[in-house]
């Protein structure tokens, strides 16, 4: 039987960024064995990214509250409320309904030009997170990504947002990154930190590093690296500047090489699939996956998502006909301006 996950079932947006009015339902699948997914296709400039950002903001409003928005102006060069509210409008309204276990929670977020935030919820005593540790850092990551300062996705289980400008940052890691809590958001990749943490945990060389999840994490990473590169994880290599390089090696033999030497498409599909597997189940938002995938992976991408994390809800925007047509007709919608 499929586990009950947190899901977004309804969204209505008014005067938010590129959207003057938008309303959509995200119905559960008819059969419990079917994927909980909706793929939205459209032409450039329609506002698909704004739809996903509205989903994120509604979740932050429901789960955390006004604090989520107070962090925004720190990262944005323009006024936050000018950015979020459509030109000429006085306020933006985002409404929606979440499903948490067997409970339905309706949320309304109103933002005006003066910076007033109003949040209304039908249920106030809902536990959205298993732990609240680190949520402030992830909110900062979201706003800095909107400002173009961070390339990491938003990982705030039960919500994950893989924005279109995500990227695995090149560069080596430092051991101190294992314990440093306030690294600059543009300094390194969260994906690489996960790998460093797991490899050091598996070696059992350090105190105060949890090793219970290291083996399954490394096994899953090896599976993905093998599938998309024909390689496996090798070792960590120290550099002269006291940093550490993450190495992989061809399965059929040959010299090891740095993970950074892979193509951007290989790095992105491995990191995206790994992170959503690691932090599922939840609401997974993916903006234009085709920008980060080799063409031959487009048609099989969604099948791979569901194979890795079958108990999550997926809301995906795309320009790719292969991605769009890879789901059943009732699981996709073509967005068009009237």
TrEMBL record:
Residues 11-181 form the Rad50/SbcC-type AAA domain. Residues 234-320 form the ATPase AAA-type core domain. Gene3D superfamilies: P-loop containing nucleotide triphosphate hydrolases. InterPro entries: ATPase_AAA_core (IPR003959), Bact_Antivir_Def_Nuclease (IPR051396), P-loop_NTPase (IPR027417), Rad50/SbcC_AAA (IPR038729). GO terms for biological process: double-strand break repair. GO terms for molecular function: ATP binding; ATP hydrolysis activity. This is Uncharacterized protein. It comes from Candidatus Thiomargarita nelsonii.
